[in-house]
Design a protein that fits this description.
The chain is 40% helix and 15% strand. By secondary structure, it is α/β, with parallel strands linked by helices. The protein has an eight-stranded parallel beta sheet. The structure holds phosphoenolpyruvate.
Length: 250
């Protein structure tokens, strides 16, 4: 059976003390969520240490929102995968559409980041998804396919066995507009087919999360679909109560 995962992407929100409070709130409700759900919070780099400390023994994992392409050295402002792993992160979000859009991340960049993540024992949460124009032109299948072929197809079988994919239609991120459960299932099933073409039966084990205005009121319906294995949550992850309600939607 595939892992169920709900990950909260806090983006550039919360000050350190607020982040710790939020993490504690999430940990406080952990026992109300099925053990079968892996819960992850992804705070800004500046709070990773204090959030990891506050989540010790909580069974809530911590991830980073990005990592550097390079191993170490003269790269001002960058944070390496090794640093993130040393702080206690188990996961790293890579290829989020905001990184692709605002910071020019390409498949070339992401191939390097994926390598750094695996070298340091981190599980990448690799994001794919089309923008509004591409959806309207019915190019969403081909966009997701190439985002997978250009990066995920370069992984070894072992690396692929330790990968999470997040399908996030850009038009649904932070807009309040959600893909319908049917739209999500259609493309998740397609993504799994693309994975199967390269990795065969191992594709059945790869968790594919939905992200884009997922909230307590729509999570259960979206998560009920066969190929939706959880969610990557932005706005609704900033309130412990909402994040927990989403985690309980399974
Ligand atoms: C995200 O950016 O990963 C996301 C899903 O954001 P939101 O839930 O706010 O749409």
């Amino acid at each position: 059976m595939r892992k169920k995962i709900v990950a909260g992407n806090w983006k550039m929100n919360t000050l350190p003390a607020e982040g710790v409070e939020l993490a504690k709130g999430v940990a406080a409700g952990r026992n109300e969520v099925c053990d079968c759900v892996t819960m992850i919070v992804c705070p800004p780099f500046t709070h990773i240490h204090s959030v990891v400390e506050s989540l010790k023994r909580s069974n809530v994992e911590v991830g980073a929102q990005d990592c550097a392409t390079e191993v170490k050295g003269a790269y001002t402002g960058e944070v390496s995968a090794e640093m993130i792993a040393a702080l206690g992160c188990k996961y790293v979000i890579l290829g989020h559409s905001e990184r692709r859009q605002y910071y020019g991340e390409t498949s070339e960049t992401l191939n390097k980041k994926m390598s750094r993540a695996y070298e340091n024992g981190l599980t990448p949460i690799y994001c794919v998804g089309e923008n509004l124009e591409e959806r309207e032109a019915e190019r969403h299948f081909e966009v997701c396919k190439s985002q997978i072929e250009e990066v995920v197809y370069n992984l070894t079988e072992e690396q692929f066995g330790n990968l999470v994919i997040a399908y996030e239609p850009v038009w649904a991120i932070g807009t309040g507009k959600t893909a319908t459960a049917e739209q999500a299932e259609e493309i998740h099933a397609y993504i799994r087919e693309v994975l199967r073409a390269k990795f065969g039966a191992a594709a059945e084990e790869c968790p594919i999360l939905y992200g884009g205005s997922c909230k307590p009121s729509n999570a259960a319906e979206i998560f009920s679909k066969e190929n939706v294995d959880g969610g990557l949550i932005g706005g609704a992850a900033l309130k412990a109560e909402d994040f927990l309600a989403i985690c309980k939607a399974f």
